Amino acid sequence: MAALLALAAATAFFGRGHWPYGMRSGSSDPFPAEVSGWGRPIDGDSLWVGRNEVRLKGIDAPEGRQTCQRNGAAWRCGDAARDALQSMIGRDDVTCSVSERDKYGRLLAACRAGDRNLNAGMVAAGMAVAYGSYWREEADAKASHRGIWKSEFQMPRQWREENSDAQPR
């Protein structure tokens, strides 16, 4: 009987979206319209917002282990993209307007930290490429040789395909 009560309580708790930090409830689950809280970057285009894993919609940043070439030398552009996102967040809370879940269960969203649009900001800084949105910001970053645009790099999507172990968790 006690085991049945514990199972019922766990089902009710987790059924309301109270998943332990880092767990996913699956891509078919409903999603909140907005999430907000402390933001912690995972890489240049995804972050934890509270207990929610969020993917910045409309952009694609170099992966954590990805390197780019500048003046014949490799630099860790994936790490630099994550650091750029952390700098944009600063000490502000992050608020994200969620539009859907991706196939990995992450929330796809447009996010802000203070008055900064993180999605547009990453592309404008040259630390992510446009992926369905933010073409103007990308053109400006490319023309100004900002971020990855001042180096030779492989598009993040292509890099992931060639490094299949780099797919999202």
Automatic annotation (TrEMBL):
SMART domains: SNc. InterPro entries: SNase_OB-fold_sf, Staphylococal_nuclease_OB-fold. Residues 42-151 form the TNase-like domain. Pfam families: SNase. This is Nuclease.
